[in-house]
Write the structure tokens for this entry.
Amino acid sequence: MISCALTIAGTDPSGGAGIQADLKTFQELGVYGMSVVTSVVAQNTTGVQGVHHMPASFLTEQVRSVRYDMPIHAVKSGMIPTVDMMRAVADQVEHIDAPYVIDPVMVAQSGDELIEESAMEMWKERLIPLATIITPNIPEAEKIIGTSIHSVEDMREAAEHICTVLGASAALIKGGHRDGEALDVLYDGSEWEVFTAERIDTANTHGTGCTYSAAITACLSQGHSLFDSVRISKEYVTAAIRESFSLGHGSGPTNHFAWRKERSI
Ligand SMILES: Nc1ncnc2c1ncn2[C@@H]1O[C@H](COP(=O)(O)OP(=O)(O)OP(=O)(O)O)[C@@H](O)[C@H]1O
Ligand SMILES: Cc1ncc(CO)c(N)n1
């Protein structure tokens, strides 16, 4: 049977981030993609021009439409902008017997805030304990744990805190915002792995975080182990950045054709 993955996230009409990036990633990795919209976002490579949130009850209705009818082999969430929506997502994900990937989206690449300030407590209380893996970048991890992160050792400590104190099964701290090589730290409560790739000199990194977490979700839906899922996804996102498109007037999008092209599939 085809593997089926669900994304619960906001939209990007310019096609680089959010649900659009997630569905492209699922497709390229051979997974049947399904999507629930939290917020319709007017955005492009230059920034966010406007947002229009779904009522939380309608988010619930959308997830029910999927889970009452379709198999779900893995689920991810991205932008969940309000406390009510976080509660609705937690209530629904509790009924889904499949790996759950949290990309704790807080700000767009352009610096625009994408969630309510008060949402952090709900995140910690209801969502993080449900996570098979959570994938914060460094600024997101700093907000979650409340201390600043400078070194790889700090990244390790953040991952450990998120697992042992906040209750996620695993945490992947992404170092895309540091200088030097693109280094991410994964901890699953007992084992560590550091994933590195060369830093690609490009401004076209719109949607990298969405692409990475969607690839992890796709791999988990196919039954790969957590560590293999991150390994494959790191290769996927690095290829997508290496061949990213200079489209639009700002930070261009990742290239989802790159992974298969580099493997001549
Ligand atoms: N210039 C780059 N070259 C190579 N890899 C990169 C580069 N920038 C980011 N990455 C990698 O891309 C992945 C996504 O990380 P990043 O920290 O950019 O996520 P993010 O900030 O959540 O993304 P977004 O901008 O979509 O919110 C990580 O594996 C990171 O190491
Ligand atoms: C909808 C959405 N989710 C996530 C991001 C972060 O890249 C974005 N820009 N837009």
